[in-house]
Amino acid sequence: MNLDQKPGISQLDDFAWPPESSTPPPGSVRALIAELAQIEDAVRRAPTFATPADGQAQVNGQAQVNPELMELMAREDQVVRALRSLRVGST
Asked: Where are the annotated segments for Disordered (predicted)?
């Protein structure tokens, strides 16, 4: 799955992917923090479980986690790791 394209995530209210071009250069601490804030906002708005319209609402009678939420959380993990690597690299 290519996390850079973020299919379907553009449906969330004000969340735009990728972050707007007015953000600092990619990889900078400011850009990463801005992206992390956008991701966290989108995570708060995203439903926890898949809906019947997704076609993945239940498997074996159990509710399934929203795939968009899983994508957001995976990207959040990548951004946090990038921030940590910048911190480790500066010491």
From this structure: 1-27
Q: Tell me the CA distances in angstroms from 46 to 49, 55, 72, 87, 91, one per residue in order.
A: 9, 17, 9, 30, 36
User: Where are the alpha helices (H) located in 15-59, listed in sequence order?
Assistant: 29-45
Residue 12 has pLDDT above 80, yes or no: no
Residue 33 to residues 36, 66, 73, 90: CA-CA distances in angstroms? 5, 24, 15, 16
The model's pLDDT over 41-71, given as tens digits with 9 standing for 90+, comes to: 999 999 998 877 656 666 666 788 899 999 9
Strand, coil or helix: 71: helix
Judge if pTM exceeds 0.90: no
Parse the chain into domains and list their residue ranges: 9-89
Helix axes 29-45, 67-89, angle to 10 degrees: 160
